[in-house]
Design a protein that fits this description.
The protein is of the alpha+beta class. It folds into 2 domains: 42 residues, YefM-like fold, CATH 3.40.1620; 42 residues, no CATH class. 63% of the residues lie in helices and 15% in strands.
Length: 92
């Protein structure tokens, strides 16, 4: 969901004056709102459910990173070879 430049960038003053409207917008659109101070991005407000999704995705990404490194370095076994060896060792 792309950010709308005209709707999703707000000053901290606007947030102070229209807190409920900004929160309603975040909940309705599910898009983050970028808060500015003196015209520069200072913070980002995100819907709580969207934040949980982002956090879960990031956690999964962190778990996958070592596996991707193993593959890049050639430290892996093909699935068919793994299962063949597993069955042999477990006498299945």
């Amino acid at each position: 969901m792309p950010i709308s430049i005209t709707e999703d960038i707000k000053s901290i003053t606007d947030l102070k004056r229209n807190t409920n409207a900004v929160l309603d917008q975040i909940h309705t659109t599910k898009r983050p709102v970028i808060l500015t101070v003196n015209g520069k991005a200072e913070a980002v407000l995100v819907d709580a459910e969207e934040y949980e999704k982002i956090t879960s995705a990031f956690t999964l990404l962190k778990l996958l990173a070592p596996a991707e490194e193993d593959i890049k370095e050639g430290r892996f076994v093909e699935a068919k070879d793994f299962f063949r060896e597993f069955k042999r060792e477990k006498k299945i």
